[in-house]
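Sequence only, no structure available. Ideas?
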Amino acid sequence: MKLLPMTARRVCCPCRACCTVLAIPEYESGRGEPCPQECAKGCRVHGSDAQPAACRAFSCGWLAGAGTDADRPDRLGVVMATGRKDATAVFYEAQAGALEKSRVKRLAGLLASQGIAAVAVPLPGEDGQERDRRLLKG
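Reply:
I predicted one. Tokens follow.
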């Protein structure tokens, strides 16, 4: 997996894809629904005591240095969550069909070569029901 040098720093804005892919129980927003705290500059409550638990626990793979600028979640259509204790990365679909992109499969393949399984989490169906998670193959 291509990682940036430690001197390089990535920032969220203008990407706010995680604001849509994470379910936020505190605001009763489900996966695929925009968080009510999302605004043009990002998140109104990021870094404050009011930040929801799901957001505090989330670790963005792209911010951590995975991939290239083209792999930024809002460009790729997939938010990669890393930092789990087990050897998995979770790929949350942010744009319909994005899990099928060759670039996403390439990232999954790079992770697999390092012994990290990529779990794909598709957007909920039109009826709002969660769809089956699956192992993403590179």
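Confidence is low (pLDDT under 50) at residues 1-7.
Hope that gets you unstuck.
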